Amino acid sequence: RLVNEMKKYAIMRNVRFLNGRALYAEKLTPYLPFKEILRAYVDESKKSGSAQAINDVLSAGEISEILPLGLPSGSVSKTKDVQTGRERMFEAFYNAIVKMAEEKPLILFMDDLQYADVSSLHLLHYLSRNIKSSRIMLIGAYRPEEIVNADNPLSETLERMDAERLYRTIEVKRLNVDDVKEMIGSITDKGVPDDFIDFIYDKTNGNPLFIEEIIKSFPPEVKSLSPDKMQKMPDTITDLINRRIGRLEEASRNLLSYAAVIGSKFSYDTLRDASGIDEEKLVGTLESLTNFRIIYEDPTISGLYYFNPPIIKEVVCAGLSEKRAEMLHKRAGDALESCMEKNLGVLAYHFSKAREYEKALHYSESAGDRAVSLFAPNEAMKYYETALNSVEKLDGKTSEKTGLLSKLGRVYFTVGEFDKSIETYEKLIALCVSSDDKKLLGGAYRAIGEIYAIREEWKKSLEYYNAGMRVSEKMKDIVGTAEAKRGIGMVYCRAGKYNEALMWLKQSLNINEPSVIAHIRMDIGTVYWYLGRYEDAVENYEKSLKYFEEMNNKPMVLRAMINTGAVYTKKGEPEKAIACYEKA
User: Fold this and answer.
1) Rounded mean pLDDT, 244-263
2) Nearest 5°: phi and psi at 107?
3) Three-class SS of residue 111?
4) Which residues, 6+ apart, have CB-to-CB distance to 341 below 8 Å?
5) Which one, of 83, 109, 90, lies nearest residue 17 by Cα?
6) What is the mean pLDDT of residues 523-528?
7) Average pLDDT of 77-103?
8) Cβ contacts of residue 181 below 8 Å, gap of 6+?
9) Over 90: is that where the pLDDT of 282 sits?
């Protein structure tokens, strides 16, 4: 894209812009970038009807015979004696581009010079020496990470040209997040959410080539871009990265596999423990990978490395066999498990990939519990799903499975995935019945009853609440019974049947459990509010407030105060209402 913009800019100012590129191949085509430049000139001249210009330019030094272009017979004059020496060839090309520049200023752009053959690089060096007094600019592009090997001829050419001060380096920096957003907007008219911009930036580190290839890989029917609609890594990116990796030594490729499995960022200690490589060899290999710009070390945290860009990690992992990937994940998990501070989610991931299901179950469930305690239900959902997948691979884990289904059903409910929540609780009910495990059965019925109440499907809601109540009564579960009656009462309240609601809610008060009573009193106050019995509403709200204050349940204290203030406002007692709101 940068080259295209440069070309447009040049043409607008009556500057001829010709470009060619070297190609990655085992057998390199001599002078390929320059042949493409000449072909571009011929095509441009034909379109403008300048046949004589072609003859004038390409007859200079009989270049058409030295670099055959497949021109029609008679379009150029042929010399009787073709000089094969390199100096004659270079002079011929030089004369040709000088002739082009006589018509108008000329820019020659050569891309992917890291793949160029030696002859092309020698010609580039020759031209850079001799064009100083002409209206010609030479521009070459290459990837620095591709020329780290000492046997890459471009490295030697650049050293020689630098010694003669024949060129200036302009580093094309990676795009920042705002630049990425602007670039994507210029490529596609599809919807681009901000989280997708962050996703692309994190994956590519702002590499324009990778960004463009990823955006182009989305099917036409996709209207809005999102990570889950990305079908696979574009082949162009995979091939490019695999070529870079393929030029590494075997030891570097092997270590890269360990690092990729650990993650987009990895510590020296974890890589050492996982790979088991001798430290001296490890340090040397890391330096090699850093020199190749495949990874880089954090400038502020010693021993912390990142893939450059992170997309390399994905390509490396995709190239691993199933068995090798399992082995590497187990080694990574074992290494991370020995750390003082354990990352539960990361351990769950590695042991799950390694098919170490006992450990995967333990760490994923623990990670889910922690996420719930940190009010991160979406993360908890993913961990519980991993745990459930692990427990299903193990035999004799019924109690663990019922516990997970209960947790997962509640998390689905929290994030609003009601269909998944119902499906999960139905599985829990079936498992509890088949195993004669009544411990969680009543709660599962009540949970489904709550969902149907939210959906205003009163009949279904009451069916499940009543089923839960019967299970709890049979088990002599006083708390479960009270919760079921409370649920039935609130179904009637939402349905506008306030007298039935009060009857069930008052029945549920027959319990000595302050946390349950507090919520029931709150619900009773709400029913009285709807009935217009404001004094009774205030009385019950204040009773619930007292319980919540004793339990130090601040969110519910706040709610009780606001509800009480709302009742006073309705009663026309603004001073009392203001006092409640100020206290809240």
Assistant:
1) 93
2) -115, 125
3) strand
4) none
5) 109
6) 95
7) 73
8) 192, 197
9) yes
DSSP result, 412-431:
HHHTT-HHHHHHHHHHHHHH
Ranges 191-195, 241-245, 357-361, most confident: 357-361
Q: Residue 53's pLDDT is what?
A: 63
559-575 average pLDDT score: 92
Please give, one letter per residue, the 3-state secondary structure of 171-219. Answer: CCCCCCHHHHHHHHHHHCCCECCHHHHHHHHHHHCCCHHHHHHHHHCCC
Model confidence pLDDT, tens digit, residues 22-69: 887 656 678 889 988 988 888 888 887 666 666 666 665 556 544 555
Locate the DSSP E strands across 66-171.
106-111, 136-140
Neighbour-count burial for 22-31, b at 16+ CB within 10 Å, e otherwise:
beeeeebeeb
Domains of the chain: 2-163 (no CATH), 177-231 (no CATH), 239-331 (1.10.10.10), 530-584 (1.25.40)
H/E element, 65: helix 63-66
pTM (2 d.p.): 0.73
For tokens 């990305």, name the residue.
Answer: 230
Q: Is the pLDDT of residue 333 over 70?
A: yes
- Which residue from 197, 113, 209 is spatially nearest to 157, judged by alpha carbons? 113
Angle (deg, nearest 10), helices 235-246 and 311-318: 80
Q: Please list, in sequence order, all residues whose beta carbon lies within 8 angstroms of the beta carbon of residue 278, skipping any fewer than 6 positions away.
A: none
**In this predicted structure, what is the pLDDT of residue 364?**
96
* Alpha-carbon gap, residue 327 to 324, rounded angstroms: 5
Tell me the three state secondary structure of residue 307: strand
Q: Which helix (H) or strand (E) holds 499?
A: helix 498-507
| Mean pLDDT within 364-375 | 95
Q: How far apart are CA 166 and CA 20, in angstroms?
A: 20
Q: Tokens for 85?
A: 């020496």
* Cα–Cα distance, 483 to 447 (Å, whole number): 10
Q: What is the pLDDT of residue 56?
A: 65
Q: Which is nearest to 432 in space by CA: 411, 448, 416?
A: 448
User: Is the pLDDT at 401 greater than 90, yes or no?
Assistant: yes
Quick one: tokens of 351? 């042991």
- Closest C-alpha among 110, 102, 140, 112 to residue 16: 102
Backbone angles phi, psi at 90, to 5 degrees: -65, -40
HSE of 271 in the Cβ direction (CA atoms, 13 Å)?
25
167 vs 70, higher pLDDT: 167
Rg of the chain over Cα atoms, rounded to whole angstroms, equals 36
